[in-house]
Amino acid sequence: DSVVAIMSAPLFKLFDIVLIAGILIHMLNGLRVSVIGLGFGTQSHKGLFWTLMAVAALLLAYSTWLLFTK
Fold it and tell me: How many angstroms separate the CA atoms of 27 and 59, rounded?
């Protein structure tokens, strides 16, 4: 129970948010690189980047909301 109490502290939740942000950004940017490597979207790679980063921001906001409401 003491470990659960420590892991539920706001500082550890902040660490979780940073970890989730890194995973989302890395995953979606890798998807973008893969799509461009296959030859799709080569003309609009900047737009694709910003679209996927907006998706990452929305998913991060949702994850943060879930993390702090429980």
Answer: 12
**Under 8 Å between Cβ of 51 and 68:** no
pLDDT for position 11: 92
Q: What's the CA angle centered on 17, arms 67 and 51, to 5 degrees?
A: 105
Distance CA 26, CA 23 (A): 5
Note the pLDDT tens digit of each residue in 15-53: 999 999 999 999 999 999 999 999 988 888 899 999 999
Could you tell me the pTM of the whole model?
0.83
Torsion of CA 29, 32, 33, 38, to 10 degrees: 160
Residue matched to tokens 């660490």: 15
Task: List, in order, residues 6 or more apart from 60 with CB less than 8 Å away.
Answer: 17, 20, 21, 24
